[in-house]
Write a structure and sequence with these properties.
- The complex is a heterodimer of chains A (147) and B (333).
- Chain A is built from five helices and five strands, in the order H-H-E-H-E-E-H-E-E-H.
- Chain A has a three-stranded antiparallel β-sheet.
- By secondary structure, chain B is mostly helical.
- Chain B is 68% helix and 0% strand.
- In chain B, helix 1 packs parallel to helix 10, helix 3 packs parallel to helix 9 and helix 8 runs antiparallel to helix 9.
- Classes of the chains: A alpha+beta (147), B mainly alpha (333).
- Chains A and B meet through helix 2 of A and helix 1 and helix 10 of B.
Chain lengths: 147, 333
């Protein structure tokens, strides 16, 4: 009996309509890229950076642990100097091969190589993806668009 | 000046006004549909073209105008060219009898409903011609299915309209609205309203009855081979038909241009006319919203289910409605 009444008054169809109407009141979940960007998690593995310490010197002492830890041989390090003056003469990262596993970040004893929030580094030539020392010290901010 | 010339100019001005407003509404219905369906799916609709996407119909129109006009080699050229026009013109010609206000009709004829039903039957010719002239067996199938569906559901549309006509006592659309001074017919004829809504949805090939033109079914059905402005004609014809069905629904069931308490007040005629026309357009937009609501909610029927529902369920219900109205009317009057 109840089933007959439900069929006559198209009850299920009306419940469907009510559900759709409830959705129209909700705020849309679309993130309008590039005007707005998705909020990233704190440990997001983005582009790499080398850090300075408080006086403006490089923290990296070219120990080579990151180069040894990397599974895909992304990092190459060449050292110069001895003792406390040991610095990296050449420090390159080839992001083409990088899989962003962050093993280099975890093994660094000075915590000088970090990931950042920057993920928009697509380029037109492959050479731009081989980062040398100056690239790594730059801090990248994402471009802002008005619309 | 002679009264005939004044009268002619007056009618021409009314025609231009109505057509301009209708074509503008048809173009912005496409925008409204995308926004409404987007928000029902918890996403935004068009946002980038103009502020909040308001210039999107213009961008669409420009794109369609600039496209290449292709006619298939083996197609029947003149029929191919004539079909979109045959779809759009009947939809627009119906606006000649629709009263937006007591004094604002282009042509106040005594058999308004009959005129509307006969002209909308001409729209079916356009679809069959499009299916035939495309020289494509899938388009032909789509055209046949669409024509069969539209012809069947037009019958039920006509039967559901008979209820309000019996209550109003006239086929003149202005008289029907005036007869709703007491109670709107939607309260006196709920079954006819539901049948009208379902038949109207099937008549304009909308979801859940849009198998003939569904993209994933028969490619695009009868308008597969059309591109550019010709396709735009079919698109405009569909939305113009939807607006006509909405306009007729407000006239027959929702009291046309009447506002519940304000219509009987003593206000200057010009202001009252503006209020009435706005109320009419508001009620039409309400029906358009219902069409889009249905589209966002339901899957589509298979063709045999569609025809089965039509002839096995709606036809008896429509006849029952006419009989019940007649019997109750006889005993009440």
């Amino acid at each position: 009996m109840k089933k007959l009444l439900k069929t006559i008054f198209l009850w299920d169809l009306l419940i469907g309509l009510k559900t759709t109407l409830k959705h129209i009141i909700k705020e849309p979940i679309t993130v309008q890229y590039p005007k707005e960007r998705v909020v990233l998690a704190p440990y997001f593995r983005g582009h790499f950076r080398q850090l300075y310490d408080k006086e403006g010197n490089e923290l990296c002492n070219a120990c080579g642990l990151c180069a040894m830890a990397c599974p895909t041989q992304v990092i190459t390090v060449e050292a110069e100097g001895k003792g406390a003056d040991r610095k990296a003469a050449k420090f390159t990262m080839n992001i083409e091969r990088c899989m962003f596993c962050n093993l280099c970040v975890e093994t660094c004893p000075k915590k000088c190589i970090v990931g950042s929030d920057y993920y928009e580094y697509g380029t037109y030539n492959r050479d731009d993806l081989v980062l040398d020392k100056e690239e790594l010290f730059k801090e990248h901010k994402p471009r802002t668009f008005k619309k | 000046m002679q009264p005939l010339i004044v009268e002619t100019i007056f009618v021409l001005v009314k025609i231009v006004a109505v057509l301009a407003v209708v074509l503008l509404m048809v173009a912005y219905m496409t925008y409204m549909e995308r926004k409404v369906i987007g928000h029902m799916q918890v996403r935004l609709g068009p946002m980038r073209v103009g502020p909040h996407g308001l210039l999107q119909p213009i961008a669409d129109g420009l794109k369609l105008i600039l496209k290449e006009d292709i006619i298939p080699a083996e197609a029947d050229k003149w029929v191919f060219r004539l079909a979109p026009v045959m779809c759009l013109v009947p939809a627009l010609v119906i606006y000649a009898v629709i009263p937006f206000d007591a004094n604002f009709v282009i042509a106040d004829i005594n058999i308004g409903i009959l005129y509307i039903l006969s002209i909308s039957s001409l729209g079916i010719y356009g679809i069959v011609m499009a299916g035939w002239a495309s020289n494509n067996k899938y388009s032909l199938m789509g055209g046949f299915r669409s024509a069969g569906q539209m012809i069947s559901y037009e019958i039920f549309l006509g039967f559901s309209i008979i209820g309000p006509i019996m209550l109003a006592g006239s086929m003149n659309l202005t008289e029907i609205v005036k007869a709703q001074e007491g109670v709107w017919f939607i309260f006196l004829q709920p079954l006819a309203f539901v049948i009208y809504l379902i038949a109207g949805t099937a008549e304009t090939n909308r979801v859940p009855f849009d198998l003939p033109e569904a993209e994933s079914e028969l490619v695009a059905g009868f308008h597969t081979e059309y591109s550019g402005m010709r396709f735009a004609y079919f698109f405009l014809a569909e939305y113009a038909n939807m607006l006509v069905v909405s306009a007729l629904a407000t006239i027959l069931f929702l009291g046309g241009w009447r506002i519940p308490f304000i219509s009987s007040l003593d206000i200057p005629v010009a202001i009252l006319m503006i209020l009435h026309i706005s109320a009419f357009i508001f009620k039409m937009l309400l029906f358009m919203f219902i069409f889009m609501w249905l589209r966002a909610t339901y899957p589509r029927f298979r063709y045999d289910q569609l025809m089965g529902i039509g002839w096995k369920v709606m036809f008896p219900l429509a006849i029952f409605n006419i009989a019940a109205t007649g019997i109750i009317y006889y005993f009440v009057m």
